Amino acid sequence: METPALHTRRSVLALALTAPLLVAPAAHALAQPPSAQDVSAQWVSAPYTYTVQKPHNLATSARYKFEGGVHTMWVYDYDQPHTAGSPTDPRTELRFNQEYSSGSRAWEGEIYIPAGVSGPTVVQILRGSRPDGTRATDVMLNVANINGGTLRKDSNQVIATGIYNKWFKIRVEHTAVAGGRGTVKTYYNGALKLTHQDEGPATRYFKNGVYHHGSGRAEARFRNITYWRQ
């Protein structure tokens, strides 16, 4: 004869076998606290197009190649400017076609600078349409041949040293204000290194490559470029 206690144990077992199976999530799948540069909640990646700017008298392939997901750009101090008769320095750059005058945009990518390269701007926000007498750029990240390769905003504000012969990640965020001054933030390998005001109202766009203010050959390589909007 089945006792009440045995009946109870069998009922509990039957219930356990027919109930839905609940599996606790693995530890690595649990939500992690956001990092200093977790942009997923605020920013979305956006499509972009670009034009390759290079010395006007040369074929694009003479100063640019794209292989294995890597953009390689180089230029010499004796090269011609982008357009005939221009007083600007020689360059090989990706000129983003997306222009903006307000709102938040960001350029992000990994950069490799060979040892000895000195003088080029590798990332910039250019103010294509701006009031007379105002600066042409909101930010210029320049490479100098000191301290194992130094990345600076302009010529004095250091972003990082020891940058030669390795991949490093740069992110430049810009919140532009129509009719006013916005804010630019520069990150190096995920860490915020510099925050400053932009140069005021303008229509601008991002560029990356080598805009060469120095001597000899300038080269930079880029991969995993992403354009962000907020």
Report on this structure.
The protein has 230 residues and is mainly beta. 7% of the residues lie in helices and 47% in strands. It has 1 helix and 15 strands; from the N terminus they run H-E-E-E-E-E-E-E-E-E-E-E-E-E-E-E. It starts with a helix and ends with a strand. Residues 1-37 have low confidence and may be disordered.
- Per DSSP, the total helix count is 1
Order of helices and strands: HEEEEEEEEEEEEEEE
- Contiguous low-pLDDT stretches (5 residues minimum) are 1-37
* Estimated radius of gyration: 26 Å
Please state the average pLDDT score.
Answer: 87
Sheet/helix structural class: mainly beta
Q: Report the oligomer.
A: single chain
> Could you say which overall geometry the principal axes of the C-alpha atoms support?
globular
Features:
globular, 230 residues, seven-stranded antiparallel beta sheet, 1 helix, eight-stranded antiparallel beta sheet, disordered N terminus
In short, what is this structure?
The chain is mainly β. The protein is built from one helix and 15 strands. Helix content is 7%, strand content 47%.
Layout of strands and helices, then pairs:
Layout: H1 4-18, E1 44-46, E2 50-53, E3 64-67, E4 70-76, E5 91-96, E6 103-112, E7 120-129, E8 137-144, E9 150-153, E10 157-161, E11 167-176, E12 183-188, E13 191-197, E14 203-212, E15 217-229
Antiparallel strand pairs: 1-15, 2-5, 3-4, 4-15, 5-14, 6-11, 6-15, 7-8, 7-14, 8-9, 9-10, 11-12, 12-13
